[in-house]
Amino acid sequence: MYRCRMLPSTDTVVTYPDGDTHSLSTVLHTEALPDGRLAVLLDRTAFHPVDHTWPDQGADRGTLGGQPIVDAIVGATDGAQLFVGRDIPVRKGEPGWAFVVVHIVETPVSGTVEVVVDDGYRRALSAGHTACHLASLALNHALAGAWSKEVMVDAAGSPNFDALAIETSTILPDGSVDVYRIGKSLRKKGFVATALDDRDAVESAANARLSELLATHAAVSIERDGHGLADRRFWVCGDYRIPCGGTHVSSVDDLGALAIRLERTDLEGAVELVMTTSRR
Ligand SMILES: [Zn+2]
Predict the structure, then answer these.
(1) DSSP secondary structure code for residue 159 in this structure
(2) Would the pLDDT of 145 be above 50?
(3) What spacing in Å lies between the alpha carbon of 112 and ligand 1's midpoint?
(4) Residue 210 in 3-state DSSP?
(5) What's the 212 CA to ligand 1 centre distance in angstroms?
(6) Cα 268 to averaged position of ligand 1 atoms, centre (Å)
(7) Number of structural domains the chain divides into
(8) Among residues 117, 143, 163, which one ends one of the domains?
(9) Domain that holds residue 128
(10) For FRET with 278, which of 30, 31, 212, 229 sits at 20 to 30 Å CA-CA?
């Protein structure tokens, strides 16, 4: 088994929130995973990993010291052991734990290594992620009249259907797919499910709002509490601020024209709504 040096006691410094696609990094620790591949921890990285607590944006593509990074996953360590992805037993911010980017490779590396991220793929995911946030604001706006009780609101002040009904969110190159479930608990919170009976009307209203958001030409940036992987980060677009750990474009003008498509499926005791956002 490859084990080198000690497990880090501080979070990996992440530079992808600033748009970095390249970093010169020091290898802090390497160990073999049960499948024989190697987990490599670095002091800093430009490589965006998938976070299994909310796996909306997948890992970047790219290389470490010239060899492909086959996957990158959020990990955590208490100094004695490395836990990867779903095996992490604590939440971010737990005292005594460091959250780290686990780069998975096939061959060992050591010393100072170059991380190179596939720039085109990153740009497409960043566009998809910003599009996803705008689409969720647009859908919340379109469904703002569908509530009979007061509920939490989104960054734009609309009842936050997206946060209350979301099941999964998947960021794709230049778009996203969000799956919502409207069941008993959402109806209890005051959501009037008949608002979805006219799917076309909701879809048109969401698209109209999305076009307005795109016409703002607003700048997009990431604000963060610190440079460690577990430090809180926020997507900021004009007046809107949403907690988010992903990567984004720098302006809504980078997105081009977008369209939202809604598909509704009736399940037993619930309705599933799938929102697909893509370039027109
Ligand atoms: Zn996000």
Answers:
(1) B
(2) yes
(3) 31
(4) helix
(5) 20
(6) 30
(7) 2
(8) 117
(9) 120-279
(10) 229
The Å distance, Cα 183 to ligand 1 centre, comes to 24
Residue 252 Cα to ligand 1 midpoint, Å, equals 15
In degrees and rounded to multiples of 5, residue 259 shows phi and psi of -135, 140
For residue 178, being part of any structural domain is answered with: yes
Question: Are 71 and 138 contained in the same domain?
Answer: no
pLDDT tens-digit map of 176-226 = 999 999 999 999 999 999 999 999 999 999 999 999 999 999 999 999 999
Q: Which of 74, 92, 117 corresponds to the end of one domain?
A: 117
- 61 lies in some domain: yes
What whole-number distance in Å separates Cα of residue 233 and Cα of residue 236? 10
CA of 77 to the centre of ligand 1 (A): 25
Residue 5 falls inside a structural domain: no
CA 248 / ligand 1 centre spacing (Å)? 8
- Residue 32 included in any domain: yes
Q: Using alpha carbons only, what angle is made at residue 135 by residues 133 and 238, rounded to the nearest 5 degrees?
A: 55
The whole-model pTM stands at: 0.96
State the distance from the centre of ligand 1 to the C-alpha of 128, rounded, in angstroms.
10
- Residue 176 shares a structural domain with residue 89: no
Examine the domain organization and report whether 176 and 241 are in the same domain: yes
| pLDDT tens digits along 51-107 | 999 999 999 999 999 999 999 999 999 999 999 999 999 999 999 999 999 999 999
CATH of the domain at 17: 2.40.30.130
Is 134 found in the same domain as 58? no
Separation of 46 CA from ligand 1 center, angstroms?
A: 18
CA of 122 to the centre of ligand 1 (A): 14
Pairing between β-strand 67-68 and β-strand 62-64 as defined by DSSP bridges: antiparallel
Q: What is the 257 CA–ligand 1 centroid distance (Å)?
A: 20
